[in-house]
Amino acid sequence: MIIAVDGPAASGKGTLAEGLARHYRLPHLDTGLLYRAVGLAVADREDGPDFEPAAIAAAQGLDPAQLADRDALTSAEAGVLASKVAVIGPVRAALFDFQRSFALQPGGAVLDGRDIGTKICPDADVKLFIQADSKARMERRARQLEKRGLVVDRYALYHQIEARDARDMLNPNGGFYKAADAHLLDTTLLDIEAALRAAIEIVDRTMALKAGDR
Ligand SMILES: Nc1ncnc2c1ncn2[C@@H]1O[C@H](COP(=O)(O)OP(=O)(O)O)[C@@H](O)[C@H]1O
Ligand SMILES: Nc1ccn([C@@H]2O[C@H](COP(=O)(O)OP(=O)(O)O)[C@@H](O)[C@H]2O)c(=O)n1
């Protein structure tokens, strides 16, 4: 079974994808980490003239070992860099095969990102699109960063997330929209457990309907 989980920044898609993977005993890939690793690899060239070719080379040479440093990868700065390399078509093309092979491993997988239901796994068995209002998303990200001992300027964080979402939505190479057959799950008023219960219910119901069709 392949489960695609998409949604905007800090909507809770990673947490849900991890929970679904645990529940159904499937491997999980957070595809945002790939873009974050490419972004970090070219951080010193940000907005410079050779940013684009350097990002393409970094994506083509990406080594899964680069996904290990979670603290660096999940920083707010890495998120901004990720969204800048994510608009470069050849970067997306270079990362496609890794994501697709992960999805197609025997038994299936859970992948979360922005274009899983639309581009990476248009054939996924179940697609979820996770939403939460911007203030709730900012507050979740703020608390996540504060738990690491970082001092967070909520006003700046809110604007940074809005700017990243806007760049993502306008990404000409993206596919960052809710797939027509994706189930919308708004987690604004749900805690992590309630959101996971709702997601499991959607997956079970979708799979039961599919089994009934056969
Ligand atoms: N439904 C929820 N209610 C409250 N906090 C949540 C919820 N879902 C996720 N979180 C928290 O919000 C933060 C961002 O969640 P995450 O899953 O990393 O989001 P995303 O992958 O969409 O960026 C994490 O600290 C996570 O524990
Ligand atoms: N499948 C994906 C996943 C992430 N991304 C890009 O990578 C950035 C970081 O993604 P992420 O999922 O790690 O970010 P959060 O939603 O966790 O904040 C996004 O803002 C997108 O620009 C992408 O283009 N395609």
Automatic annotation (TrEMBL):
Coiled coil: none annotated. It catalyses: dCMP + ATP = dCDP + ADP; CMP + ATP = CDP + ADP. ATP binds at G7, P8, A9, A10, S11, G12, K13, G14, T15. The keyword DNA repair does not apply. GO terms for molecular function: ATP binding; CMP kinase activity; dCMP kinase activity. GO terms for cellular component: cytoplasm. GO terms for biological process: pyrimidine nucleotide metabolic process. Residues 3-203 form the Cytidylate kinase domain. Keywords: ATP-binding, Cytoplasm, Kinase, Nucleotide-binding, Transferase. It is found in: Cytoplasm. Belongs to the cytidylate kinase family. Type 1 subfamily. This is Cytidylate kinase. The lineage of its organism: Bacteria, Pseudomonadati, Pseudomonadota, Alphaproteobacteria, Hyphomicrobiales.
